[in-house]
Amino acid sequence: MAEDVAIADIAAAVGTPFYVYSAATLTRHYRLFSEALAPLPHTVCFAIKSLSNIAVLKLLGDLGAGMDVVSGGEYVRAKAAGVPGERIVFSGVGKTRDEMRLALTGGVRQFNVESEPELLALSAVASELGAVAPITLRVNPDVDAKTHEKIATGKKENKFGIPLSKARAVYALAASLPGLQVVGIDVHIGSQLTDLAPFEAAFLKIAELTEQLRADGHAITRLDLGGGLGIPYTRSNEAPPLPLDYGALVKRTLGHLGCEIEIEPGRLISGNSGLLVSEVIYVKEGEDRTFLIVDAAMNDLVRPSMYGAHHDIVPVIEAAAGAAAQDYDVVGPVCETGDTFAKARALPPIAAGELLAFRSAGAYGAVMASEYNTRPLVPEVLVQGDHFAVIRARPTFDEILKRDSIPPWL
Questions:
Q1: Residues near 164 by Cβ (< 8 Å), separated by ≥ 6?
Q2: So where are the chain's domains?
Q3: In 3-state terms, what secondary structure has residue 384?
Q4: Which of 152, 354, 377, 410 is such that its CA lies 20 to 30 A from the CA of 91?
Q5: Does domain 272-401 have CATH number 3.30.70.660?
Q6: Residues involved in catalysis
Q7: CATH for 92-263, options being 3.20.20.10, 1.10.1040.50, 3.40.50.300, 3.40.50.360
Q8: 3-class DSSP assignment, residue 397
Q9: Helix axes 72-80, 54-62, angle to 10 degrees
Q10: Does pLDDT of 180 surpass 80?
Q11: Would you list the DSSP string of 97-152?
Q12: Computed from CA positions of residues 258, 267, 199, 32, in that sequence, does the dihedral angle turn out positive or negative?
């Protein structure tokens, strides 16, 4: 079930594979973060990069969420969902001048600036428009988040932010440039953190920097702490810290500074709100293993092939009591050996035509999908209570082909 809707009923209506999200889970997870930071003044900005469907953004925006965007396209999505510019934070290491103009003319809460060249470009664009761009500078605290190397962002060898040792000099530069208004500090050390210790190390450095910058004459009124709190991808006893624990840490390390706290959770709000549902096409007996060949593929959910990520996989229709589990390699139909979701995964006996659900697929699932092998992007479905709606339809082959054009000389 997804809330009060049978997954099998959705499959019959829209076909497989598809993503399905729970409105109740999205709502609950947003509120957990907001409640964890109270009574500090705070803004919870959902990281659109984790799940960018406009219906999901509207649901969260209507609850009061801000949005963290990292591209012009994500900015346009946030505005299309009805989120006002004053609740949109523009992050990202490579903002273009066109993206800066887009946000300055449409309204923006702040730019999280990542380098001196970006600072100079934003000053020029804002001056050209006769606008003032509110900014934080993203500081790289050189803290090891102890997460996957491809999603760590707070070490000195990562491309993100300004080294802590240069922060005061770059803030002085920012204060001297026209068209800019320094409002705070930004830090983000990585994604899928399952321990609060790296957050504490980073936040203590930010508290010290806040005092130094205020002594230098800067008005530091906001602290943007990024996101990164992890979710449980397995049903083990090792659960990541709760938002309540995170909130207590923020209050202990930064609460005395009198700043508004901004956080940008993505995965913890969206990850366990979603499933990818797929049908088994064939059960193939290999020499030393059994393959479940499903109709979802690496282009629909790339995390296992990209990160070696684990997703729990369960039959949609529960197996009979006492059914003996056996090991399967769960694979997709794409012509890549990397199109493998799991190896030697213990499941009850599975037959062709049965439905499987990939858990914790709400974050970095649909947003990272592609049409590799000319496989249409799969539908996205939102459930609320006992009803559901398709919030992104599966394109037809004709719609896909019409995006191509043949030059006149062929």
A1: 139, 140, 141, 142, 205, 209
A2: 92-263, 272-401
A3: strand
A4: 377
A5: no
A6: 335
A7: 3.20.20.10
A8: helix
A9: 60
A10: yes
A11: HHHHHHHHHH--SEEEE-SHHHHHHHHHHHHHHT--EEEEEEEE------S-GGGB
A12: positive
Tokens of residue 200, six digits? 């504490």
Which of 231, 370, 187 has the alpha carbon at shortest distance from 296? 370
How does residue 193 score in pLDDT terms, banded at 50, 70 and 90?
confident
Predicted confidence (pLDDT) per residue in 4-35, tens digit: 999 999 999 999 999 999 999 999 999 999 99
In percent, the amount of the chain with pLDDT more than 90 equals 87
Q: Residue 5: what are its φ and ψ, rounded to 5°?
A: -115, 135
DSSP-derived pairing of the beta strands 110-113 and 313-315: unpaired
> For position 151, what pLDDT does the model report?
44
pLDDT of residue 157: 52
Assess contact for 141 and 198: CB atoms under 8 A: no
Nearest to 258 by CA among 219, 228, 225, 217: 219
